[in-house]
Write a structure and sequence with these properties.
Two copies of one chain form a homodimer. Chain A is mostly helical. Chain A contains seven helices and two strands; from the N terminus they run H-H-H-H-E-E-H-H-H. A two-stranded antiparallel sheet of chain A has the order 1-2. The first copy, chain A, is elongated. The structure holds a DNA duplex.
Amino acid sequence: MAADALSVTFKALADPTRRAILARLASGEASVLDLAAPFAMSLPAVSQHLKVLEGAGLIARSRAAQWRPCRLDAAALKDATDWLDTYRQFWEGSFNKLDSYLKSVQSKERDDGNA
Amino acid sequence: MAADALSVTFKALADPTRRAILARLASGEASVLDLAAPFAMSLPAVSQHLKVLEGAGLIARSRAAQWRPCRLDAAALKDATDWLDTYRQFWEGSFNKLDSYLKSVQSKERDDGNA
DNA sequence: ACTGTATTTAAGCGACTTCTTAAATACGAG
DNA sequence: CTCGTATTTAAGAAGTCGCTTAAATACAGT
């Protein structure tokens, strides 16, 4: 219910169809029909996935005649990466003197329990 | 339904309670009761969150008397970061000669449409 | 064996997700 | 204004999610 930005972003990324759409958009703008082509699902289904991606701020849309081309918007991806980077030391092996850093992680996320 | 590893990981991260649990585990092992303390929810609810995190490989559990302490396992976080890193250039501004790189992204995720 | 503490399992509920088909809308072209 | 193309909205089915309470299990100490 909180629907904090990070949760919305990760939820949007938690679907292989949506990740494939982002991958496609990495090589440039595309129409809905273009984006739907690789998938064995109806057009409304793709349209709904695009709405999720748009709601997460991962894509933006313009207007050209009857087309509504989509383009990648990577800002939210950066936010997700920034969050994950907080844990980078855990897979890079140097576990020294990072306690204070980790405490800042905790205080940043601690309030989520109240939502 | 595909339940590929990346989808499972991102889905596990798409909940603020679970991210807060990971943040807590960043400072060391903890019991279920310890982990549940900050949250206004029942113990079974926390236990279920832990099961999701364990299913995603984000935590591992041991046994000590009646306690089942949890510890962070960052391998899956690294996988998520690796995926996101593919898009790093999009928020770092250098959009030159990355076409071939991006095509590799596409071929990696292209098959998701068949699932 | 009995008690208390830690944790999980089971069952159920309301909300949300992902997909479908059918119908609606938006726009350019003729 | 009608026609075809692109896309969305609407409504509904099936499954999943996050939570609850009640009951079960696991183990240590006495």
